[in-house]
Structure to design on (1097 residues):
């Protein structure tokens, strides 16, 4: 058991009206924070990029070799109806080397298999992802949501964006990550964002509660294979949101709980609610420095740790929302925002589509 | 109030019994546990077979069972009365410190185990039939009476009174007790002793409609411990 | 001619240049080791009576006394230690089972001393607990299975009964009878002031102490002494004692000599009569019977109190804990083999059970593997000696710890391990009025508060160093621990890596 520790830069852009825009914007933003990365990992999550297949689960998979691909595709074919599959198009550039085989599949679960499993559809998909990642050597599913995709690699994030031709994609939301790990994992799967279903997380910081969180979430059937904070946070969001039906705001309260001294002077019923959440979900509390940007199907969420040990800035302009580790990363793509502010430690920033957005 | 236990489960049944002010009759009882746990007033009549731990921590209420009961009846009972119109299971009246338990038929192993008394609180158990082994194990106080009305044999099993260091056990039997532990003395109960338990026996005979003459038709042996400190010489300071 | 087979273990050394014949040592020694000779106008002593409790040393106004280990030795033997030989002599004289007190003093590994704690450097900041918030509040009890919402979408509280502590430390069970009333009062008042719990043990609850009910755990042990409905409802939680680390599988036996006055009244047994706790609960012969006892308590308390089940750490403790976690129990307390006792057969105390560190790590892992860790809280006891032990226990997976010996030491105990004699010169493990009054609860409770206030500061310092500002994030956070000098298997069981690995 080793643990991957890294410092980082994060950035996110979201159109509240659901307007789709090119991935170039997010590359420019994350590139502005080049100094926060060290070239050992970068990546993006993009939402709304596959409208023609929006009802299909889009799997992005790294393969180390042909036999892993064969085995994995056999598994996929026996569990899913594969609508279409292809190599993910890339641009060969000298900054990005040693790439694995990178494939994309649009699929829906086989109705008979799904019925046999007695699981709901999303749980079925999650189990298939875990199955592939833990049992098929050399195959790694790094994206599994609908109408969204993760693109990541070892390298500086702006190079990773160019490699994946991200500017050719159009989506309503993008998040990005530039990595500064303290070790040198050469593996592409270890880059961020980390994603499960539609949830994707980019994260900056190193949490001190890591092993408490990991050992807790593993109890609920999640296998932490990457040993990264981001992985654990993603699973905790999936568990609390999808399985426990907490709201995103409540999840933020669980992750970055207000201090007891703050809770105690709150009025009823908030006080009771917060005490309940802190007690019931105590092992989901995250301590230590973190700022995260979470992408999900209906919007974007950002959260800082409760002591605000990491920087995070939010900007707005018309229907656009910008979130980044540094203000410069916003200014470089929108120099005249209507509003720019720094959320408080533990303050949930949750932005969803404007009413009426499809 | 009359309650059916049918498909209620013990938790709901007991909640209902607790919420009733006044007497309760329960029917369709099949193994629901903890009936009357800690109850301090009211009479609970049970038709059927109540589950384990009937009348646990009972604190003054009366429980009447028309049928057999199971294990741990009157466990850690403090006060009140439990009347079983049938047999009782193992560990009847475990650690009981007050109140009365009457069993019409037989009781299981370890009847009255670790019963104790304090000042005016003296628990009494009367068994109409026979009991299993380890009768009155660790007995520290109170009174256990075994009448053996349904047998011509000795009505208790083996190892009666092991670890007994208080209280008394009365056994009605034409055959004398044998093989008792060293610290227990047995003899025919004297007039004074009988006098002490007469009222309880009287009540027992009335409750179950048994003639007192029949009860006193055989010798009654009384078992008492030799001292309050059975293990004093067992240890050496180290 | 009488032959003494052995020389006393300790010698009382008196500096006659300092001794002023004030005779305070004589008055203070319940073992009557000191004596004044009128004719010679001189204090003398009998080393054979000395238990090395240090009372006389502590009260001597001129520091004329000290107790030393005797330099008299038997012929050296690596197999037959002097201790072993002397124990045989004792048994040959008396025919008695050797009786000892307090925790196992033998030289078994102390795993806490082979575990080191982490601190942040660069990649993550340490936090300064004196100025930044640092939270040690702990809840003990089961967590709800699912959340419920009202019509307005707000969360409805469906939290099972639980106890709330200001810090993850509680005073473990010590019965009134095995310890003095003043000890109990000190523990109760300290618990109330600190916002933690003390535990009545199996001796019932003295009527004066009912007012500390909010900070009281009442115990139901096999003897059921002083257990009745009011008792069960006068507390924050009810503990079923199955076993104790110092004497797993063994019942209790408070000799009649200690059943005097209020002890008799509180236990509800006659004066002078032995109070015997059977080895098992005679309504629990199997795991499903435990569920019955747990629910009997829940019924008698209308489901308002969490139920704790305390077991001794024994070989298959994790399987046992798994069974307990499925019995409706809210909290499991595990007592390691070094846990203290007021009296236990020496052979049991020194040879039965396993270390708490291993037991705790194994239980926590097992419950997680089975997905039921959130159904119960875990309390670890059995020689928690300092705040560092607390931090290590929490990081191994405990929600909270129990301290017993440490609390008694704060009250003056010098670990002479003679509690079973009932002649505690410090007024702790005694019912003799003249001795018991030496422990003033007004100072006693303050000393306990002081000690735990200091521990709390230290816990916060260590948490801050790790960059953790709330105790929940330390719980089960084994990456914060590293082993030194442990073999692969030990590391595997503890679930920690070796230092620098």
């Amino acid at each position: 058991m080793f643990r991957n520790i890294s410092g980082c830069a994060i950035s996110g852009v979201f159109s509240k009206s659901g307007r789709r825009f090119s991935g170039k914007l997010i590359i420019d933003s994350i590139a502005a924070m080049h100094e926060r990365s060290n070239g050992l990992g970068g990546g993006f999550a993009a939402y709304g990029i596959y409208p023609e297949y929006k009802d299909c689960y889009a799997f992005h998979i790294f393969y180390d070799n042909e036999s892993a691909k064969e085995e994995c595709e056999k598994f996929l074919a026996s569990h899913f109806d594969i609508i279409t599959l292809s190599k993910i198009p890339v641009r060969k550039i000298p900054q990005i080397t040693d790439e694995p085989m990178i494939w994309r599949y649009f699929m829906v679960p086989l109705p008979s298999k799904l019925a046999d499993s007695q699981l709901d559809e999303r749980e079925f998909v999650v189990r298939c992802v875990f199955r592939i990642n833990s049992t098929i050597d050399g195959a790694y599913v790094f994206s599994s949501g609908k109408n969204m995709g993760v693109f990541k690699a070892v390298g500086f994030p702006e190079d990773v964006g160019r490699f994946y031709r991200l500017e050719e994609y159009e989506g309503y939301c993008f998040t990005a990550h530039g990595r500064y790990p303290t070790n040198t994992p050469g593996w592409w799967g270890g880059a961020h964002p980390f994603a499960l279903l539609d949830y994707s997380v980019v994260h900056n910081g190193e949490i001190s509660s890591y092993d408490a969180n990991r050992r807790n979430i593993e109890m609920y059937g999640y296998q932490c294979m990457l040993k990264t904070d981001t992985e654990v946070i993603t699973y905790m969001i999936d568990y609390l949101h999808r399985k426990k039906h907490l709201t995103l705001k409540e999840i933020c309260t669980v992750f970055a709980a207000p201090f007891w001294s703050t809770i105690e002077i709150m009025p009823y019923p908030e006080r009771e609610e917060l005490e309940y959440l802190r007690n019931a979900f105590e092992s989901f509390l995250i301590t230590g420095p973190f700022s995260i940007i979470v992408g999900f199907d209906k919007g974007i969420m950002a959260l800082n740790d409760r002591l605000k040990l990491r920087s995070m800035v939010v900007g707005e302009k018309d229907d656009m929302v910008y979130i980044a580790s540094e203000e410069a990363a916003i200014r470089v793509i929108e120099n005249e925002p209507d509003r720019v502010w720094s959320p408080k430690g533990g303050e949930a920033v949750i932005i969803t589509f404007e009413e009426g957005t499809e | 109030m009359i309650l059916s236990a049918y498909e209620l489960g013990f938790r709901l049944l007991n909640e209902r019994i607790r919420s009733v002010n006044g007497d309760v009759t329960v029917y369709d009882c099949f193994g629901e546990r903890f009936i009357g746990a800690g109850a301090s007033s009211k009479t609970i009549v049970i038709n059927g077979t109540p589950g384990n731990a009937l009348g646990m921590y009972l604190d003054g209420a009366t429980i009447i069972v028309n049928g057999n009961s199971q294990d741990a009846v009157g466990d850690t009972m403090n006060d009140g009365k439990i009347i079983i119109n049938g047999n009782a299971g193992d560990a009847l009246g475990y650690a009981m410190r007050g109140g009365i338990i009457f069993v019409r038929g037989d009781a299981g192993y370890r009847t009255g185990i670790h019963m104790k008394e304090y000042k005016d609180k003296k628990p009494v158990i009367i068994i109409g039939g026979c009991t299993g082994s380890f009768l009155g194990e660790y007995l520290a106080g109170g009174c256990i009476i075994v009448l053996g009305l349904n047998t011509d044999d000795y009505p208790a099993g083996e190892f009666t009174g092991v670890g007994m260091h208080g209280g008394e056990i009365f056994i009605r039997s034409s055959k004398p007790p044998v093989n008792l532990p060293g610290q227990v003395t047995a003899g025919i109960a004297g007039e004074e002793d009988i006098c002490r338990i007469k009222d309880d026996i009287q009540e027992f005979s009335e409750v179950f409609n048994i003639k007192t003459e029949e009860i006193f038709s055989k010798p009654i042996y009384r078992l008492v411990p030799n001292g309050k400190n059975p293990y004093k010489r067992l240890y050496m300071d180290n | 001619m009488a032959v003494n087979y052995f020389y006393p273990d300790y010698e009382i050394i008196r500096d006659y240049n300092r001794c002023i014949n004030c005779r305070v040592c004589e008055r203070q020694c319940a073992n009557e080791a000191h004596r004044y000779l009128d004719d010679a106008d001189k204090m003398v002593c009998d080393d054979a009576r000395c238990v090395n409790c240090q009372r006389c040393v502590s009260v001597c106004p001129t520091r004329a006394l000290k107790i030393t280990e005797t330099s008299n030795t038997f012929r050296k033997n690596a197999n037959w230690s002097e201790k072993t030989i002397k124990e045989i002599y004792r048994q040959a004289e008396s025919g008695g089972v050797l009786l000892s007190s307090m925790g196992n003093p033998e030289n078994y590994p102390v795993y806490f001393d082979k575990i080191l704690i982490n601190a942040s450097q660069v990649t993550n900041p340490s936090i300064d607990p004196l100025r930044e918030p640092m939270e040690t509040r702990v809840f003990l009890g089961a967590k709800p299975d699912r959340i419920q919402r009202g019509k307005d979408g707000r969360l409805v509280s469906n939290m099972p009964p639980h106890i709330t502590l200001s810090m993850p430390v509680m005073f473990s069970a010590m019965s009134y009878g095995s310890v003095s009333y003043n000890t109990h009062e000190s523990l109760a008042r300290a618990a109330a002031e600190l916002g933690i719990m003390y535990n009545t043990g199996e001796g019932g609850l003295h009527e004066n102490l009912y007012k500390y009910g909010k900070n009281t755990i009442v115990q139901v042990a096999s003897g059921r002494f002083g257990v009745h409905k009011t008792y069960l409802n006068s507390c924050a939680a009810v503990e079923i004692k199955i076993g104790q680390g110092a004497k797993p599988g063994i019942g209790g036996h408070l000799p009649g000599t200690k059943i005097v006055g209020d002890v008799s009244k509180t236990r509800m047994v006659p004066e002078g009569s032995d109070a015997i706790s059977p080895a098992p609960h005679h309504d629990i012969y199997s795991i499903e019977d435990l569920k019955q006892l747990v629910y009997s308590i829940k019924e008698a308390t209308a489901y308002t109190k969490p139920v704790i089940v305390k077991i001794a750490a024994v070989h298959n403790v994790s399987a046992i804990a798994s069974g307990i976690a499925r019995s409706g129990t809210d909290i499991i307390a595990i007592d390691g083999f070094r846990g203290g006792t007021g009296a236990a057969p020496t052979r049991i105390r020194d040879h039965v059970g396993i270390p708490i560190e291993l037991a705790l790590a194994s239980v926590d892992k097992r419950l997680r593997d089975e997905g039921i860790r959130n159904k119960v809280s875990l309390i670890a006891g059995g020689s928690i000696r300092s705040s560092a032990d607390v931090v290590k226990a929490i990081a191994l997976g405990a929600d909270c710890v129990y301290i017993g010996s440490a609390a008694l030491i704060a009250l003056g105990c010098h670990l002479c391990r003679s509690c079973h004699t009932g002649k505690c010169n410090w007024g702790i493990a005694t019912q003799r009025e003249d001795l018991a009054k030496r422990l003033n609860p007004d100072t006693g409770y303050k000393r306990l508060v002081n000690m735990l206030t200091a521990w709390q500061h230290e816990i916060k310092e260590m948490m801050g160093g790790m960059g953790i500002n709330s105790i929940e994030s330390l719980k089960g956070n084994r990456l914060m621990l590293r082993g030194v000098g442990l073999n692969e298997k030990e590391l595997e069981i503890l679930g920690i890596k070796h230092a620098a690995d």
Remarks:
- Residues 168 and 224 of chain B are 5 Å apart (CA to CA).
- Chain B has a mean pLDDT of 93.
